[in-house]
Design a protein that fits this description.
It is a single chain. The protein has three domains: 86 residues, no CATH class; 158 residues, no CATH class; 80 residues, no CATH class. The protein has 14 helices and eight strands. By secondary structure, it is an alpha/beta fold. The chain is globular. Helix 7 links the parallel strand 6 and strand 7. Helix content is 50%, strand content 16%.
């Protein structure tokens, strides 16, 4: 099998050749063959039967590669188990460029932290000019904007909204702003990052959701998020969808009103609600727990009374989906070490990149770096299996059609 160095050298040779459709076709064919050879080695077999096979191919995903010969249309092989991405496509290239641009911009403007200054010196960026930084930023901004403003096709039954907080300079002060990330699952069960906003004020939510609708967002049935001010009303007004209050964040807020010595007991009592088989039984269990806690923890009981419908909304949806619908954060509850949920992992990756900068020079630089990270994460998601199975998504659509038919005949 060819090594990464061999593939890179071959790509360089192709790019320095003369222009022309013939050469582009040869280049695309050669790189396609290289990917096939790599996948053969990765799974232990070609298309033939073999006892050494570890998994099977599962179609392909289209990806373009910009070269000096022009744009090459490639098909990246997908696997039933595990993932494959060719080294020569550099899946992290955009985010690394965005990070470099933000560091350079902060240094050029004289608003960088000592950490950024040290990075500038270590990476040898001191000789860069403002025009060079501007050109780099413009190139990245164009790609990020194209991704964040792309049309949204089809229906998106589930939408997650979550915030991560980033420090930025505004009018000579350092403030913390919220980067709102919108993630959805379409009718085929595939997830994508749909948008990025930079506020969580009550007035922000209506315009943010309207922006998603203008780009084609439709068919939303359930929106999962924390209890941001103004968001629930915006969901009803713009999307006519149900709101699922993040179960993990609710439990954290609930346990604040319980003495530390009693938190595990209260959490265990509430946890019994979430193992019930259906919404009706869960509601009965929820009210029973609230009544049990009322004599000792009146505030906790009041919060349970108020939040029942919002926290249990996900139980009206197909059982195979519920473990991924109840929260934006970890899939467990306080008191244990739960596995990170997909949104939590995404936020962790965003934080890993933004922590390198520390304090951003302006809001545009936040959008540049976070948008680039989201773009690349979205590309990686497309190489993975469906987030929700096609069978359960098709079944949900069929149930909706049956319910609609029943309404029209009554």
């Amino acid at each position: 099998m060819m090594t990464d160095d061999t593939m890179t050298r071959l790509l360089d040779q192709i790019q320095t050749s003369a222009d022309g459709d013939f050469l582009r076709a040869i280049a695309a064919h050669t790189l396609q063959r290289l990917m096939e050879f790599e996948v053969d080695g990765l799974i232990g077999a070609g298309h033939e039967r073999s006892d050494e096979r570890t998994t099977y191919r599962n179609g392909s995903r289209e990806r373009q590669l910009e070269t000096r010969l022009g744009t090459l249309d490639l098909k990246i092989p997908k696997l039933r188990q595990g993932t494959y991405f060719p080294a020569f496509l550099e899946p992290r290239r955009t985010a690394e460029k965005a990070l470099t641009a933000v560091i350079q911009e902060a240094w050029i403007q004289g608003v960088s932290t000592r950490k950024v200054d040290d990075l500038v010196q270590a990476l040898g960026m001191t000789g860069i000019s403002k025009s060079q930084v501007s050109a780099l930023c413009q190139d990245i901004d164009t790609r990020v904007l194209s991704f964040l403003e792309r049309p949204l096709d089809g229906e998106w039954p589930y939408l997650w909204l979550d915030a991560t907080y980033i420090k930025v300079r505004q009018n000579g002060r350092i403030v913390s702003i919220a980067a709102i990330i919108a993630t959805g699952v379409n009718q085929d069960g595939r997830r994508e990052i749909l948008g990025l906003g930079q506020s969580e004020a009550a007035t922000f939510w209506i315009e943010f959701l309207r922006g998603l609708v203008r780009r084609g967002l439709k068919g939303v049935k359930l929106v999962i998020s924390d209890a941001h001010e103004g968001l629930k009303a915006a969901i009803t007004q713009v999307l006519s969808a149900t709101w699922q209050r993040c179960r993990v964040h609710f439990m954290r807020s609930l346990l604040v009103h319980v003495p530390k010595s009693q938190q595990s007991v209260v959490a265990a009592a509430v946890r019994q609600v979430f193992v019930q088989p259906d919404r009706e039984t869960a509601g009965q269990a929820w009210r029973h727990v609230a009544d049990q806690l009322r004599p000792r923890f009146r505030k906790v009981a009041a919060l349970l009374d108020e939040a029942e419908h919002d926290v249990l909304a996900y139980m009206d949806y197909p059982e195979p989906h519920r473990s991924k619908l109840h929260s934006t954060g970890p899939r467990g509850l306080p008191g244990a070490e739960p596995p990170l949920g997909p949104i939590e992992r995404l936020n962790k990756e965003v934080k890993r990149r933004t922590n390198v900068v520390g304090i951003f020079p302006n809001e545009a630089s936040v959008r540049r770096l976070v948008g680039a990270v989201l773009l690349e994460q979205n590309d990686e998601w497309q190489l993975q299996h469906r987030y929700l199975t096609l069978e359960t998504m098709t079944g949900m659509a069929a149930n909706d059609e049956a319910a609609l038919a029943a309404l029209t005949t009554t």
